[in-house]
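Researcher: Here's the sequence for the chain we discussed earlier.
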Amino acid sequence: MIEVAAQPFPFALDPAHVALVVIDMQRDFLEAGGFGETLGNDLTPVKQIVPSVAALITLFRARGWPIFHTRENHAPDLSDCPPAKRLRGKPFLRIGDLGTMGRILIRGEPGADIVPELAPAPGEIVVDKPGKGMFYATDIGERLTAMGVSQLVFAGVTTEVCVQTSMREANDRGYECLLIEDATASYFPAFKQAALEMIRAQGAIVGWTTPLAALQGALG
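Model: Thanks. This is the structure I predict for it:
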């Protein structure tokens, strides 16, 4: 076990049973013309974490530890996108509409892909999910079980939505979860801070949080 300085107390990382999950670092959420921008968001906070996420991925690749990448997207016929999701809010383009990177959040379209700087390497698992949480309507649970994974290190966007939802799903299934603070972001910095505090409250009720440097230091 490797002790990692974290909040609310040190995290005991098990190298034999840990995997990295990078949540939804997609062009539609990070780049101009994507879904994030159609909702009127400032993309700066989510773009700023790309170097930290890349460094975290490099850390896991160097040790040969499993890496999962998730992508939130939908079938071309929108059969897995309920109206309650598609018709929410007032974006200038909705899920399925044609944008500058193809149809918004549609599986197989350029905008739904992961940003080039964080592209999955051969052997890394890409999970397409129609919901906010990574377990809903996916096979990631079966894959993790088959690999003997019991601990998950999280990164990605957005902290308070897909990241936190996935962490809560994982916590309910018995996984120990560690979120890397500077490898996650929200369009709203205050929402990120609130989510971090919720995750680690009450003795790590959902999981632990730590900066990337602390994990790098613990791994030598």
